[in-house]
């Protein structure tokens, strides 16, 4: 809709209202609306002059933290106060907000392991951010304790807790890994010295068809802080492609003095391999055939063949035939005469 047509429609509506105002019914409607607006205004004036209760959130921040101190917990983002004042004052808090409380680290540090802010201190801080006419009836939390440490952290490796699967025509091209091999844990030395490794929270990802990056949180350890508290997990995935090879048939376990010939001597196999392995895979990576004991027990001149060995990354291996003709023969080498010593 163009601007011209928009204003044209506004003009039409105004003309409709003007015509309505000249009718008896229209005058009644406008009179009623006037009384509604007037009543609302009177109610608003009375409401802003009455004493009322409200719950407000006052932001709170910790300042002047020493560089050598590591906070093991976060300061709550706000304290929640139930206050009483005239409606106009409460409305002002809603519209303009309340300035944050600034808590000085040095004032409340016990110099050992915690920041402690008792109930009277919290109320004192809150009063400074409110008008003199405002009464605080209740405040939560009623006290705050934030643990910290001056001890140096300990660098620990991170293991991956994952439930991963790829789509049918894809595979993991390498091991799942994280971009950061270790993180730092801070806390009481006696506690963190008993920990040898950390773990990610469980990662669940199914039917993946491309390399995937997942931001995973480190499982928290109570009473400690871990930095960074999350790592990037890389799941390398690539597509399968079809590879066709001609592979010699091998009969294993042939006893001395025997030989076995198969017809054909080679077989065509088809398999799925990751695209990155396609150029490097060769026929000698596969072992196709059977054992002498197996084919000897088979009646007739045909014996089954199967995959005896194959690369771990090759899947869905298909043979062009599942049996071949074979001939077993014995070698009859002439006996060597005894050597007579002079």
Kindly report the CATH topology of the largest domain. Answer: RNA Polymerase Alpha Subunit, Chain A, domain 2
Can you tell me the CATH architecture of the largest domain? Beta Complex
**Shape summary:** elongated
Based on DSSP secondary structure assignment, what is the total number of beta strands?
Answer: 25
Average pLDDT reading: 85
**What's the N-to-C terminus distance?**
123 Å
Query: What share of the residues lie within helices?
Result: 10-25%
Portion in beta strands: 35-45%
Largest sheet: 6 strands, mixed
Q: What's the number of helices? A: 7
Structural class by secondary-structure content = alpha+beta
* Tally of domains: 3
By CATH reckoning, the class of the largest domain would read: Mainly Beta
CA gyration radius, whole angstroms: 41 Å
Q: Looking at the chains present, what oligomeric state does this protein adopt?
A: single chain
Q: List low-pLDDT spans.
A: 337-342
Describe the fold and architecture:
With 342 residues, the protein is an alpha+beta fold. The chain has three domains: 100 residues, RNA Polymerase Alpha Subunit, Chain A, domain 2; 82 residues, Beta Complex (RNA Polymerase Alpha Subunit, Chain A, domain 2); 91 residues, RNA Polymerase Alpha Subunit, Chain A, domain 2 (Beta Complex). The chain is built from seven helices and 25 strands. Strands 10, 18, 20, 21, 23 and 24 form a six-stranded mixed beta sheet that branches. The radius of gyration is 41 Å and the shape is elongated.
Summarize the structure.
23% of the residues lie in helices and 42% in strands. It is of the alpha+beta class.
């Amino acid at each position: 809709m163009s601007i011209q047509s928009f204003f044209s429609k506004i003009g039409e509506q105004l003309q409709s209202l003007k015509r309505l105002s000249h009718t008896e019914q229209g005058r009644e409607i406008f009179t009623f609306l006037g009384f509604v607006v007037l009543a609302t205004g009177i109610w608003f004036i009375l409401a802003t002059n009455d004493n009322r209760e409200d719950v407000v959130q006052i932001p709170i921040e910790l300042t002047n933290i020493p560089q050598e101190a590591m906070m093991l917990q976060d300061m709550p983002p706000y304290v929640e106060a139930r206050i009483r004042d005239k409606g106009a004052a409460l409305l002002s808090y809603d519209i303009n907000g309340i300035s944050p409380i600034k808590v000085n680290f040095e004032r409340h540090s016990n110099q050992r392991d915690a920041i402690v802010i008792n109930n009277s201190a919290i109320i004192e801080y809150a009063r400074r951010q409110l008008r003199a006419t405002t009464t605080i009836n209740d405040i939560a939390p009623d006290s705050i304790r934030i643990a910290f440490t001056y001890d140096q952290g300990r660098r620990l490796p991170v293991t991956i807790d994952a439930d991963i699967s790829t789509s049918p025509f894809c595979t993991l091209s390498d091991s799942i890994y994280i971009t950061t091999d270790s993180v730092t844990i801070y806390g009481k030395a006696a506690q963190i010295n008993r920990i040898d490794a950390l773990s990610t929270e469980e990662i669940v990802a199914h039917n993946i068809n491309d390399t995937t990056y997942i931001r995973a949180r480190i499982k928290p350890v109570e009473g400690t802080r871990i930095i960074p508290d999350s790592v990037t997990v890389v799941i390398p995935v690539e597509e399968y492609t079809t590879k066709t090879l001609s592979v010699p048939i091998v009969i294993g376990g042939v006893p001395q003095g025997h030989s076995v010939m198969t017809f054909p001597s080679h077989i065509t196999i088809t398999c799925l391999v990751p695209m990155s392995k396609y150029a490097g895979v060769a026929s000698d990576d596969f072992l196709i055939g059977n054992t002498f004991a197996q084919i000897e027990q088979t009646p007739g001149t045909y014996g089954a063949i199967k995959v005896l060995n194959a690369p771990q990354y090759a899947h869905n291996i298909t043979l062009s035939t599942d049996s071949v003709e074979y001939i077993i023969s014995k070698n009859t080498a002439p006996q060597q005469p005894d050597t007579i010593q002079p």
